[in-house]
Amino acid sequence: FFLVSQDTVRHCSKQSLEKKSLMVAIGSPSITSALVALSVLAINITVDGAREKMIRAGKKHKEHDHVHVVVNKVGPFNNPTEMYRFYSLPFCQEHATEDEEKSHPHYGDNTDDETGEEPGWGEHPITREKKGGKLHSQRLGQSMVGDRRESTPYELTFGDDVEWRLLCSTRLSADDLQVFRDAIHNTYFFEMFLEDLPMWGYIGEVVNEDIVMGQVREDGTVYLFPHLHFDIGYDGDNRIVSVQVSTQAERRVDISLVENGKKELTVPFSYSVTWTKEPELTWKRRHSRYVSNEFVPKGFEIHWLSIINSFVLVMLLTAFLTIILMRV
């Protein structure tokens, strides 16, 4: 089977991008779905719009080069065919300013012990001007599997470790909190890319969940993971060969209850970065570590009956159209 994003149609017809993009599974016996899929792919190829350039893998980076983190989609772990665009959830789409970061209680965690300076400022400043939610150009195969790659405001520079940096401090409304709670209850995970290397992680976690009934107990707690830590490895030629994203339990935020009747909650989203030289991992073997990853399926079940059924229906439709045209 393959997936096609409904938002691709909206983008190509220059309509709103604010709605969620539900991934529609194509490959059922329905000929209508097959025709719609082919139409979407054709439009996506011919109408590209003002998209961000595709991130090429294998670049030999120089020190302090900007490295781009790209988000793809989110969805329930137990149902990989149900996927939505990353920014259908109320994540940050703009980076915090220097003044906003300095006013945060965690400011100073990234200060160099010897110089007292903040890495990324001064001689090699970060721009803080990157925007999230901008569509990236994609290959045909990426569009066919339902990829929805978009830019992010994360500021990463090659070789520069970051202990802590504020991405944004946003005030989440009651509706926003409910969206996050629903996503966490359904075990939503996200997918990111750094060059051609994917990363996966969970939106949050539920403590004391009633697994039998599928509901959270009264004393259960829903936690959101607002902090992401990026572990990035590079080889002797300064090419990125490994990436991993993780969350930190000590920075999680309780969003299960609203204190004192408040309907809003201010959540600081942040990130940290660690760079490690890995000369033993060659560029050609950079995907080898994904074999044992829990997010990578061990195998794919091929529905041969549905594939043959769809193929026969297409052939029959083509034959019927040919007969009609010949009689006309």
Q: What is the strand tally?
A: 16
Largest sheet: 5 strands, antiparallel
Q: What's the order of the H and E elements?
A: EHEHEEEHHEEEHEEEEEEEEH
On the 0 to 100 scale, the average pLDDT is 77
- Pick out the low-confidence regions: 1-30, 40-49, 119-123
Overall 3D shape: globular
Beta-strand residue fraction = 25-35%
Structural class: alpha+beta
- Write down the Rg: 23 Å
User: Helical segment tally?
Assistant: 6
Helix content: 10-25%
Amino-to-carboxy terminus distance: 36 Å
Provide structural commentary.
This protein is α+β, with helices and mostly antiparallel strands. It has six helices and 16 strands. It has helices at 6-12, 31-46, 98-102, 140-144, 174-185, 304-327, and strands at residues 2-5, 23-26, 66-67, 69-76, 84-85, 150-151, 156-157, 162-172, 188-194, 197-202, 204-210, 215-224, 227-234, 240-247, 253-254, 265-277. Strands 4, 5, 6, 9 and 10 form a five-stranded antiparallel β-sheet that branches. Strands 8-16-13-14 form a four-stranded mixed β-sheet. Strand 4 (69-76) and strand 5 (84-85) form a beta hairpin.
